[in-house]
Amino acid sequence: xxxxxxxxxxxxxxxxxxxxxxxxxxxxxxxxxxxxxxxxxxxxxxxxxxxxxxxxxxxxxxxxxxxxxxxxxxxxxxxxxxxxxxxxxxxxxxxxxxxxxxxxxxxxxxxxxxxxxxxxxxxxxxxxxxxxxxxxxxxxxxxxxxxxxxxxxxxxxxxxxxxxxxxxxxxxxxxxxxxxxxxxxxxxxxxxxxxxxxxxxxxxxxxxxxxxxxxxxxxxxxxxxxxxxxxxxxxxxxxxxxxxxxxxxxxxxx
Length: 254
What we know:
Blueprint: H1 4-16, H2 23-43, H3 51-60, H4 62-91, H5 95-128, H6 131-141, H7 152-168, H8 174-181, H9 198-218, H10 225-247
């Protein structure tokens, strides 16, 4: 029989042992990623979701649409560490579901960032040419070949695998697992705005992952002083870089 002190020490070592991306990045990712996606959906919910209406919305409200699409891309970029964290928890009991579900879901997030790049270029066509020419360019090239399209099925199916793994591992209950799996139905592609059901799908993602992110952050010791200092340094440097790039856009061309 193990001594209670030895059991506690073993448990502490498990909590403090290194793992990627780590408790703080993983926990914050599970919180910020879904909330950014939800913000994006709400910002553009007033406009029809198809590409011509999205381009017209940008022509009339460039700051609002830029904010919406930027939040969506940031949400995808910030969410992948959280998916790795969730897959790590699932993998302790169901490694196959963790591996394939995590890989497919992260692949899907990459695909959405790829589409975000296409969206950005389409919006710039509105600026440098006109709304009509931008709409024609998107229409004429909408079904053009790109390799990412052939992974769409795997991108969407990853959410279901993660949901099954999370439920079978006891990480999420049935309701939150179903909410996570519902992301399978979130539209994927170029200039996809917010459909009526999209807001509820992303809200389900928040219900599934945000409480888990909070639990991950609470389950362990606070960050060290060194980690806090380096985090503040990185935030300050990045903030200064952003401000300088806005005030002096010629710096971005160097």
